[in-house]
From TrEMBL:
Superkingdom to which the source organism belongs: Eukaryota
Gene3D superfamilies: 2.40.160.120, Pleckstrin-homology domain (PH domain)/Phosphotyrosine-binding domain (PTB)
Membrane topology of this protein: Peripheral membrane protein
Protein name per its UniProtKB record: Oxysterol-binding protein
GO cellular component: cytosol; perinuclear endoplasmic reticulum; plasma membrane
InterPro entries reported for this sequence: OSBP_sf, Oxysterol-bd, Oxysterol-bd_CS, PH-like_dom_sf, PH_domain
Biological process, per Gene Ontology: lipid transport
Comp. bias (Basic and acidic residues): 665-706
Annotated source species: Cyprinus carpio (Common carp)
Length: 807
């Protein structure tokens, strides 16, 4: 009679499996995933829920376990919690009962030991060191004792089931051959099966006990040998220190008694003069002096790796005077080698220490009426939004935060396989959203021509530059290059839609990543960012949409899907999934994780069509993969981040003042600096001044463009006038003026229209970016701004005369 082998619950192992749990009279028994670990029995709806949602937990230390019938049993802890459970078979039920009884016995012992240890603990300063020295031995003894108790529990269970088996055998002997024979034989077989299960648990417990005893026996032998060797080293070191102390004592006393001997050449030429305190060679070995209180500590030991070195404060010239150059290490050499704050070590590794904190965010209440009363009679596009809604970073700095996890691109540059490289690039695209989960503050809108440099060559091997290249529509260009073989560039413009309860922000433009060694060229776009509870409630951010990362050289592709948050979904919140395929569409890797925590990848071994149909009606693909490996994991936020706008470690350093940057750099923007310092009223005043200055500069630039136009075109424009177009809108009608530009230039859009609507302007903005030029990208065919060079050369020369005065 063969049965499928199931895992036997060991006394210390976690036991998992499916059981049916009684829910209510409508649904009856429901299948749940149970986990028994550390004396606690927990259950979940599915195995996937183990990561985030536990449906219930019961402590077995005070629980009562009762068997109802062949498959049903009840676990209760005194009335507050009661689980009515049902196994698939009697054998499966007995496996759970055995595991539960073992876990209950262990939990009870641990609780009793903790109570006893709490009663017996008394403060004893003299015995603290001894207690800490013996803590490992006591812990091991407790573990061994626990194993012995496990053996005792298993022994009791074996005796219990053995007696039941014996009774069944006795009944079998007294039964006449007839109808009861088969039933009795079945009972004997089940009893024998239960006895075998319990015996296996007993054997496992014995095996664990022996393994633990053998492991600790070897560890104790090594510890004893290490203690013996350390004692020998300490004795040798003590002897060396005693000799050095004797030399120092004599040198100090000789210098105190005859201080003029060092400057008297007559005495020096006659050889050494006997001084008070000198001793013979025999005294040097046997006689020691008490240390003077005013002697500075100076300890040096032989420069042998097997000795433990320790140095005190330096006494100039003593080591050379006493002839300790050979085989010894002076304090100056040791301090320079071990102290990172010494001048010599700073010259070797001149890495700047970045700040780790900014002033805490002030708790200012926002008075909406004070904002609205200043808006009466003004155009909506000219209403300045207060800094209360902002964070003390600009959009250029937020764009530079994409490089928070630059190490992913460093690893990708070293990959030999393009498919593995694609995994790291995909993880990098997801990691750029990890800093946004709590960042509900709006970044400052950059002024036209504003720049931001991020020079991390010394620390991280890369440097990047951002510039605001357009104001209507707002667009920023970004270029980053690394010494480790990769280049990242992007131009991002933002389009937004207000839906009443939430605001959708859709980044426009492509991101390019080029690897120098392999010449692989990757492109992708960003997903939609949604800010919820704009009107009422607490703001929260979600990322949703799909990303296609494409390798234009090999044709490899990674399709990433950012699942939108849903209250009714059973999936993990902020879930991201993806599949890496080659140019033929064959899947090689599966990516999974969350955009605010981590990403993992699994190698695909086999794929097949099957499973449930998706939302679009198509059949899902099932992938058989190897064990998942971690690609990226988010770095925890610094301590106190909730009071610092939830900035990451990199974000805290972005607005730190830095010498040598361009005069247009965001770090020199006054309103943003005032907000960071907590002076919000002054920041609002300064923000209005900067915005009005930018409008004045733009109007002057438009007038210059008109003056540069031909007189015939100017006359034609003035004769034709403006063509008015009536556009009906709900609930009222709004008149928009549309002026056609004569010439080859496309229409220019301005935000000066009523209600902030985009209006075609008759004035062409002839602004030319300082460090970027507009070209057609050969890969995507899109017009984009590409870095043309010159910034870092100007920084080295300190030549910023061509930069505009925007602040």
């Amino acid at each position: 009679m063969s049965e499928p082998r199931m895992p036997i619950p060991a006394p210390e192992d976690t036991y998992k499996g499916w059981l049916f749990k009684w829910t209510n009279y409508i649904k009856g028994y429901q299948r749940r995933w149970f986990v028994l670990s550390n004396g606690l029995l927990s259950y979940y709806r599915t195995q996937a829920e183990m990561r985030h949602t536990c449906r219930g937990t019961i402590n077995l230390a005070t629980a009562n376990i009762a068997v109802e019938d062949s498959c049903n049993f009840v676990i209760s802890n005194g009335g507050t919690q009661t689980y009515h459970l049902k196994a698939s078979s009697e054998v499966e039920r007995q496996r759970w009962i055995t595991a539960l009884e073992l876990a209950k016995a262990k939990a009870s012992r641990m609780q009793l030991e903790s109570d006893d240890s709490g009663d017996d603990s008394t403060p004893n300063a003299a015995g603290q060191s001894t207690g800490s020295r013996n803590s490992e031995v006591q812990s091991t003894l407790r573990t061994l004792g626990s194993k012995v108790e496990d053996l005792s529990t298993c022994n009791d269970l074996i005796a219990k089931h053995g007696s039941a088996l014996q009774r069944s055998l006795s009944e079998l002997e007294g039964v006449q051959l007839g109808g009861e024979t088969s039933e009795k034989i079945r009972q004997v077989t089940e009893r024998a099966t239960l006895f075998r299960i319990t015996s296996n648990a007993m054997i496992n417990a014995c095996r664990d006990f022996m393994t633990l005893a053998q492991t600790h026996s070897k560890r104790w032998q090594k510890a004893l040998q290490s203690e013996r060797e350390q004692r020998v080293r300490l004795e040798e070191t003590l002897e060396q220190l005693a000799k050095q102390h004797n030399h120092l004592e004599r040198a100090f006393r000789g210098a105190t008694v005859l201080p003029s001997s060092q400057s008297n050449p007559a005495i020096d030429s006659k050889g050494p003069v006997p001084r008070k305190g000198d001793a013979s060679d025999e005294d040097e070995e046997n006689e020691f002096f008490d240390a003077c209180e005013d002697v500075q500590e100076f300890i040096t030991v032989p420069a042998d790796p097997k000795y433990h070195r320790r140095s005190g404060s330096n006494v100039s010239g003593i080591s050379n005077e006493l002839g300790m150059d050979d085989g010894t290490t002076s304090l100056d050499e040791q301090s320079l080698a071990s102290n990172p704050e010494s001048p010599q070590s700073q010259e070797l590794v001149p890495v700047r220490k970045r700040r780790t904190r900014i002033p805490d965010k002030p708790n200012y209440s926002l008075n909406l009426w004070s904002i609205m009363k200043n808006c009466i009679g003004k155009e909506l596009s000219k209403i300045p939004m207060p800094v209360n809604f902002n964070e003390p970073l600009s959009m250029l700095q937020r764009l530079s935060e994409d490089l928070e996890y630059y190490e992913l691109l460093d690893r990708a540059a070293k990959c030999q396989s393009s498919l593995e490289q694609m995994c790291y690039v995909a993880a990098f695209t997801v990691s750029s959203y990890s800093t946004t989960v709590h960042r509900t503050g709006k970044p400052f809108n950059p002024l036209l021509g504003e720049t931001f440099e991020l020079d991390r060559v010394q620390e991280s091997g890369y440097r990047s530059l951002c510039e605001q290249v357009s104001h209507h529509p707002p667009a920023a260009a970004h270029h980053a290059i690394s010494e480790r073989g990769w280049t990242l560039r992007q131009e991002i413009a933002l389009a937004s839609k207000f839906r009443g309860k939430y605001l959708s922000i859709m980044p426009l433009g492509s991101i390019h990543c080029i690897f120098e060694k392999s010449t692989h060229h990757y492109t992708w776009k960003k997903v939609t960012t949604t800010v919820h509870n704009i009107i009422v409630g607490k703001l929260w951010i979600d990322q949703s949409g799909e990303i296609d990362v494409v390798n234009h050289k090999t044709g490899d592709r990674c399709h990433l899907k950012f699942a939108p948050y849903s209250y009714f979904s059973r999936d993990v919140a902020r879930k991201v999934t993806g599949v890496v395929t080659d140019k033929d569409g064959k899947a090689h890797y599966v990516l999974s994780g969350t955009w605010d925590e981590k990403m993992e990848y699994s190698r695909v071994m086999q794929s097949s069509r099957g499973g449930e149909n998706g939302a679009d009606g198509r059949q899902k693909t099932v992938y058989q993969t190897l064990k998942a490996k971690e690609l990226w994991k988010k770095t925890p936020l610094p301590e106190g981040a909730e009071n610092m706008y939830y900035f990451s470690t990199l974000a805290l350093t972005l607005n730190e003042p830095e010498e040598g940057v361009a005069p247009t750099d965001t770090r020199k923007r006054p309103d943003q600096r005032l907000m960071e310092q907590g002076r919000w009223e002054e920041a609002n005043t300064e923000k209005q001044r900067l915005e009005e200055k930018q409008r004045t500069v733009r109007r002057e630039r438009e007038r210059e463009a008109n003056r540069a136009a031909s007189p015939s075109e100017e006359g034609k424009e003035s004769a034709d006038g403006a063509e008015e177009v009536e556009i009906a809108s709900e609930p009222s009608e709004t008149t928009y003026k549309t002026e056609t530009l004569h010439g080859s230039h496309p229409p220019a859009y301005s935000m000066e229209g009523p209600y902030g609507a985009p209006v075609k302007s008759g004035h062409q903005d002839n602004y030319t970016p300082m460090w970027f030029e507009r070209l057609v990208d050969p890969m995507t065919g899109e017009p984009t701004h590409i870095y043309k060079g010159g910034y870092w050369e100007a920084k080295e020369q300190g030549y910023w005369d061509s930069c505009p005065d925007i602040f």
